[in-house]
Amino acid sequence: MKISYECGPCFLRQAREALDLSTDDEALKMEVIGEIFKFLSDNFKEGTNSNSTGSAMHKLIIQKTGCRDPYRKEKIKGNEIALKYLPEVKRIIDEDDCLENYVKIAIIGNILDFGAFTLDDDVESVIKSSLKKDLTVKDIEEFENSLKTHDRVLYLVDNTGEIVFDKLLLAKIKEYGLNITIAVKSEPILNDACMVEALDAGLDEFGEIVEIGCGTVGYVDSEISEEFRKIFNDHKFIISKGMGNYEGLTEIDLSDKDIYFLLCAKCNTISRDIGVDLHDMLLFKK
């Protein structure tokens, strides 16, 4: 997906937050934010890929501050929030064990995104209200048909915290007899899930966990490893979680894929691109 003008303020907000999480050195912050201004001045242009731009900016912050994982505490916070609401979402499933509820809960987990929301946003209130909402777009019948048709699936996870809710959907997918490959980031970026978080959450109970070969905002085709590219190409059925993966995957040819996007539309640029309202929850086939 291409950037819009609204991505500019969002990049700067993310840069400020990442710098505050990375260092207390005010002089260093001034130096780095100056480099980010220059980077965006040179690269923030119509037609630029949003994922690549955001990834490069965050990598610059990591390199300049030496803080490899600025969002480490936020990852822990995300897990704590998800675990807090796990009993409530399990009650929803106990009341109605339909596939749609598992999908809805996995999408609600996508709200735990410290790239789209600010660190001060009341994410818990959004989760509470979302538990009472229906999916706006729900290609459930097509999704279930794909679960019945294929014998394996590649599941692209997104954020730490969110993966706690993903476990419920992964367990449901296993009931259809599919072999699941779960893809995580190879290096920290925002609060995205890496191997250590995936293992801590117990995702390996549901399938093989693989790394994509890079630490990028969502999926950036030019950055993934050749090993992961083979895995990606070998899978015809793909489940993509989150906005970042949507932004990146819609930049490449997916005509040979049976691919579904599960996300909450958390920004105006994404909402306009898909044609939905802000905060709508979506399962749709691309």
Write up what this structure looks like.
The protein is of the alpha/beta class and 286 residues long. The protein has two domains: 7-65, Orthogonal Bundle (Helicase, Ruva Protein, domain 3), CATH 1.10.8; 72-285, Rossmann fold (3-Layer(aba) Sandwich). Helices cover 51% and strands 12% of the residues. The radius of gyration is 18 Å and the shape is globular.
Question: What tags apply to this protein structure?
Answer:
286 residues, Rossmann fold, single chain, 51% helix, 2 domains, 12 helices, Helicase, Ruva Protein, domain 3, 7 strands, 12% strand, seven-stranded mixed β-sheet, alpha/beta
Which regions are unreliable across 5 or more consecutive residues at pLDDT < 50?
A: none
Question: In CATH terms, what is the fold-level topology of the largest domain?
Answer: Rossmann fold
Number of strands: 7
Arrangement of strands in the largest sheet: 1-7-6-5-2-3-4
Derived from helix and strand composition plus strand pairing, the structural class reads alpha/beta
Would you state the CATH class of the largest domain? Answer: Alpha Beta
Sheet with most strands: 7 strands, mixed
Query: From the alpha-carbon coordinates, what is the Rg to the nearest angstrom?
Result: 18 Å
Q: Roughly what percent helix?
A: 40-55%
Counting structural domains, the number is 2
Q: How many helical elements?
A: 12
